[in-house]
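Hi P.,

Sorry for the delay on this. The queue was packed all week, but I finally got your sequence through. Input first:
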Amino acid sequence: MKTEFINHAIDWYKGESIEAGIVLMWGGFMLLMSLYFFIYDRFDSTHQLIIPLFIVGLFWGTAGGVGLFINNSRLEKAKIEYTQSKENFIKKEKIRVRKFIGTYKYLLIGWSITIIIGLALFNLTNGSLLKAIGLSLILFAVIGLIVDLTSEQNAKKYYNHFEQIKP
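Then the structure:
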C-alpha cells in the first residue's frame, strides 16, 4: 500500500517537535542547575557556574520553546498546503530540505570545536570562572551535537521519500 507523502511530512515535523522538546527540557534543566547553585552555593567553583549555566539554559530553553511553536505551526500549514496542491507542496519541501541538509556537516564541526574549546578551558586553566565557562560550553554544545545528529538522520530519511516520487 502506497503511503501519502503528507504522512512522511507529518512524521518529519513531529520528529522536529520532539527534538525541540528535548532542547526545551535541556534548557530547563540547565536553569534548574543554575538556580540550585544560586540557592545552595557553598564553594567558589559552584558560585562561578551560576551565570554560565543560566545563559546556556536561557538560550536552549528559548530555542526549544520557539522550535516547538514553529514546528507545530508549520505542521498545520503543511497539511493545508498539501490539500491545496500536492505537487507544489512536495516541490517546495524538497527545495527547503535540500537547502538545509548540507548545513549539518558545518554544524557538527562547530559543535565539536565548541566542545574542544570547552575542554581546553576546563582542563588548561586555573580560574574557577574559566573552568565554569568551559564546562558550560561543553554542556551547551553536547545538546546541539545530539539534536543535530538526530535531525540529520531524520532529514536524510525524509529526503529519501522525495527520491521515491515518480514525476
